[in-house]
Amino acid sequence: MQIEKILVQPYSLSFRLPLITAAGKISDRVGYKIQVWDELGAYGWGEAAPFPGWGMETLAETAMTLRLMQENLIGKTIEQSSQILTLLAGCERYPAARHGMELAILNLFGKNQNLPLAKLLNPNSRIEVEVNGLIGADSMEKTMLQAEELVNQGYRCLKLKLGRLTWRADLARIREVRQVIGDEIKLRLDPNQSWNLEEAIAHLKELEPLAIEYIEQPLKAKNLSGMAELRRLGIIAIAADEAVQNLEQLHQVIDSQAADLVILKPMALGGILTAFQAAHIAIDAGLEVVVTTTLDGAIARLAALHLAAALPKLNHACGLATGHLLADDLLPIEILKSLQKNPIIL
Questions:
Q1: Domain residues of the chain, as ranges?
Q2: CA distances in angstroms from 292 to 7, 41, 300, 345, listed in the order given
Q3: Catalytic residue among 33, 111, 159, 265, which?
């Protein structure tokens, strides 16, 4: 397969309603969709969308890096998927751009092999991936409405954002959600780094009776010693999210014994191949893995779904069901509906 042409187009996607988190409101996603053609006219899609506050490059840096990639990749020949990492070496400082270009090339390579992305990564990939429903850090009324809607839609696991309100208000929301959804639905919490260690210890003790699946990144990402202390308490499982933005940080989390689970975001990690490698490192170290998006458009979401499907071990619902938050998307709705019937087609 030889790369013949590369097209990069900017996009902007608005949310139906702002998503409220501890870090503030998220109202839109902006980035670039990428098409890479081969010499026979086949093409693959990619998506590059840096996420504010996640240690990624700026949107301007994404654009600059994609332009350089365009210049350097035209005419390159790829005979095996491992060559893609070699071609993109040196772009690690620009994970969103690297993710987008890697995905487009990987998607095209899969088409050349007549394999969907999940099968390209793992011939024994699964055909179904459980996903969680997402509830923002909003008022009690909106929280209850979202919780009821998600359970009625069939979700068996809910993720509740925290940290925007006072702890008492958040605790009341958690208790009410648990009462409404019952004991059979899993409930996980995401304070987005908004607690300090003393607060986190007290909060975990109050949450212990509520059967919380895990707490996602309760402390600042750099506070691995604090995360390790919370984990040693054994009250509720601890997941590292913002603390895992690259492979070096993943190894630090493992060495510090700072988490029971790691949250892997392909856009933040710089690509599906790196995220796949990160998942194997985590699993080999005895950690559980959850794949999520950075609230991306359809192209990146579907790629993350394929990644999750390719993992050898997946015991927790993944955070991939975020498309309903967007007022529009990167693929026509009729294509998205057909893809939902068979999630392993990209």
A1: 3-115, 120-341
A2: 27, 32, 10, 18
A3: 265
Position 28: which residue type? D
Does residue 265 have an active-site annotation? yes
- The topology (CATH level 3) of 3-115 is Enolase-like; domain 1 (3.30.390)
Contact 142, 106 (CB under 8 A): no
- Amino acid occupying residue 292: T
341 tagged catalytic:
no
Yes or no: say if 116 and 144 are a contact pair by the CB < 8 Å rule: no
Q: What is the pLDDT of residues 279-304, one digit of tens each?
A: 999 999 999 999 999 999 999 999 99
Structure confidence by residue, pLDDT tens digits, 189-219: 999 999 999 999 999 999 999 999 999 999 9
**311: closest CA among 249, 268, 261, 270?**
261
Query: Between 3.40.50.300, 3.40.50.620, 3.20.20.120, 3.40.190.10, what CATH number should domain 120-341 receive?
Result: 3.20.20.120
Q: Are 296 and 275 in contact (CB under 8 A)?
A: no
Q: What is the pTM of this model?
A: 0.92
Catalytic residue, chosen from 33, 111, 159, 161, is 161
Q: What's the distance, Cα to Cα, between the start and end of the chain in Å?
A: 19
Let me know if 251 is exposed, middle or buried by CB neighbors in 10 A (0-12, 13-18, 19+). Answer: middle
Entry field: residues in the chain: 346
Whose tokens are 């923002």? That residue is 136
d(CA 333, CA 302): 14
